TrEMBL record:
Its main location: cytoplasm. Substrate binds at D120, G121, S122, S123, N213, Y244, Y262, L263, Y264, K274. The keyword Lyase does not apply. It comes from Bizionia hallyeonensis. This is Fructose-1,6-bisphosphatase class 1.
Length: 335
């Protein structure tokens, strides 16, 4: 049950019964993410005024220059989830290894692990373009009350119990799923409350937007090159419109609302593309499927991929169902 303008807090309580596993624990977890999102939002909004823009001079495990807001957002999400004793483990794009939460409480029975991309689109911070946060939640597979293990994090995306993102855009929104559709909440910054503004979000079956970093065109596989040419061809409702922000969260969010496809293929420079399976592709794939869209690596369903390492990368094609299927067709034909 959902009512427009319901607060996120009310929505979480009223929809607990639709969770796959009925426990207040997942509700408390979403509540913590809501809190951390508000804290990070506050910082993102004043980024130009305080000394929070720019690089910290460190490189993360991904080989990327860490931005101050990458580090800040990472700390805030980890702190919030740790202090409130909500989860048993956290993995993050910005951390080399997963974090095991050593609760003071011997009877720590927390069952969930969270994987996060604390700040997505960090190259856009300095130029005042939308950035985001992505999160993914699993039930641990090792026994409760013991330290978490790598296998708790290396689960197939289809095992996710919740996933979502925050987009710090012209307005700040939290969009998430617990496996029963996708709902979007907009923050009223005056009172610090998220309200249900986008109930039951869905991708249209067809769309007219394609989003890809075409600067890499020369390095793309032939199937992707052919699909891009198809998008640009004059026929039927084509050529499509090209839109690429460079923040996965914002590109996905726009395409879900307007209908479209997002592609980050492999290239002759990056054998598995750029996006991270666990922090970016799996949560977005669950959201896409819950919103009647599709997510693929070009040949296989993203949610069926068996992860082998924390920071694994994977080619990513995601969005309106018929568009993703057409791109897959081009990939198969070029094999
Ligand atoms: P992050 O800022 O979390 O490292 O993610 C960056 C990702 C994603 O947000 C975006 O879609 C993509 O990188 C953009 O990459 P290009 O600049 O290569 O197009
Ligand atoms: Mn990064
Ligand atoms: Mn990212
Ligand atoms: Mn990031």
């Amino acid at each position: 049950m959902s009512r427009k303008n319901q607060t996120l807090g009310e929505f979480i309580i009223e929809n607990q019964s639709s969770f796959k596993y009925t426990s207040g624990e997942l509700s408390r977890l979403i509540n913590s993410i809501r809190l951390a999102a508000k804290v990070v939002n506050h910082e993102v909004n004043k980024a130009g005024l305080v000394d929070i823009i720019g690089a910290v001079g460190e490189t993360n495990i991904q080989g990327e220059d860490q931005q101050k807001l990458d580090v800040y957002a990472n700390e805030k999400f980890i702190q919030t989830l740790t202090n409130r004793n909500i989860v048993c483990g956290i993995a993050s794009e910005e951390e080399d290894d997963f974090i095991s939460i050593n609760s003071q409480d011997e009877n720590n029975n927390n069952k969930y692990v969270v994987l996060i991309d604390p700040l997505d689109g960090s190259s856009n911070i300095d130029v005042n373009v939308s950035v985001g946060t992505i999160f993914s939640v699993y039930r641990r597979v090792t026994p409760v009350g013991t330290p978490v293990q790598l296998e708790d994090f290396l689960q197939k995306g289809s095992q996710q119990v919740a996933a979502g993102y925050v987009v710090y855009g012209t307005s700040t929104m939290l969009v998430y799923t617990t496996g029963a559709g996708v709902n979007g909440f907009t923050l009223n910054p005056a009172i610090g409350t998220f309200y249900l503004s986008h109930p039951n979000m869905t991708f249209s079956e067809d769309g007219k937007i394609y989003s890809v970093n075409e600067g890499n065109y020369i390095h793309f596989p032939q199937g992707i090159k052919n699909y891009i040419k198809y998008c640009q061809m004059e026929e039927g409702d084509r050529p499509y419109t090209s839109r690429y922000i460079g923040s996965l969260v914002s590109d996905f969010h726009r395409n879900m609302i307007k209908g479209g496809i997002y592609l980050y293929p492999k290239s002759s420079k990056t054998s598995n593309g750029k996006l991270r399976l666990l922090y970016e592709c799996n949560p977005m794939a669950l959201l896409a499927e819950q919103a009647k869209g599709k997510a693929s690596d070009g040949f296989n369903r993203i949610l069926d991929i068996e992860p082998t390492e924390l920071h694994q990368r994977v080619p990513f094609i995601c969005g309106s169902k018929n568009m993703v299927e057409k791109a897959e067709e081009f990939m198969r034909l070029a094999e």
